[in-house]
Amino acid sequence: TMEILMPPPQIYVERTLAIIKPDIVDKEEEIEDIILNSGFTIVQRRKLRFSPEQCSNFYVEQYGKMFFPNLTAYMSSGPLVAMILARHNAIPYWLDLMGPSNSFKAKETHPDSLRAIYGTDELRNALHGSKNFTAAEREIRFMFPEVVIEPIPSGEGARDYLELYVNPTLLAGLTELCKQKPADPFIWLADWLLTNNPNKPRLFQRELMEESNEAKTY
Predict the structure, then answer these.
(1) Is the pLDDT of residue 200 over 90?
(2) Is 83 in a helix, a strand, or coil?
(3) Which of 74, 75, 136, 168 is most buried, judging by how many CB atoms fall within 10 Å of its CB?
(4) Which residues are CB-contacts of 144 (< 8 A; sequence separation ≥ 6)?
(5) Cα separation of 209 and 131, whole Å?
(6) pLDDT at 207 over 60
(7) From edge to edge, which strands make up the β-sheet containing 127-129?
């Protein structure tokens, strides 16, 4: 009999775009170490230099704002490093790690954040991160036109995901199921998993949400 080989399972892991801005490119290795130690995988990276026109296209949502000319001048002032970062909840974790977009505010309210450590002022805030899933998709394709966003195949990444998120959640749910002994265990477990889903977006500090709403993520 012919054996049918099934394709390996694939785990979708969230991705975001990170940029090390021109004035701190010399801290690239230091920042990449922090990124890796924070549980991210650097899927791709490239060093490039933006033209003012490319800056305008990348920051198209900020067009017309008073700071826009200074922003394009700053971002085209030297080489920068763009990276695709991947991990569970990559977008909110990277925003959280960076801190508020205004470096002055970051130093006051989130002194351990990357913008507090590496940022200079309201404009020169050292790093960029995609503010949501739609922005991440657009920005990754802008910076990496050839990239194909594929799921991570089964292997170490998939095993890590299962061990970190899936198995503990199922174990907790099944343990609670045994305690509760509901009349319909399948419906009860389905409802429990919806309530305790580890992939639910987490809430950020209030000020970060307010800044996202103001679209002031540079």
Answers:
(1) no
(2) strand
(3) 75
(4) 44, 46, 82, 84
(5) 10
(6) no
(7) 41-48, 80-86, 15-20, 127-129
Stated pTM of the model: 0.64
Secondary structure E strands in the chain: 10-11, 15-20, 41-48, 80-86, 127-129, 152-153
Residue ranges per structural domain of the chain:
10-152
Question: Angle at the Cα of 24 (from 52 to 135), degrees rounded to 5?
Answer: 55
* Right CATH for 10-152 from 3.90.1300.10, 3.30.420.10, 1.10.10.10, 3.30.70.141: 3.30.70.141
Q: Which helix (H) or strand (E) holds 143?
A: helix 133-143
- Residue 70, phi then psi, degrees to nearest 5: -65, -35
Q: Which residue has the tokens 């959280």?
A: 96
Active-site positions?
128
- Per residue in 183-215, is it b (16+ CB within 10 Å) or e — as a string? eeeeebbeebeeeeeeeeeeeeeebbeebbeee
Q: Where are the beta strands (DSSP E) in 125-216?
A: 127-129, 152-153
**CA atoms lying within 13 Å on the CB side of residue 179:** 6
Per-residue pLDDT of 110-160, as tens digits, reads 999 999 999 999 889 999 999 999 999 999 999 988 765 555 555 555 566
**CA–CA separation, 108 and 125 (whole Å):** 14
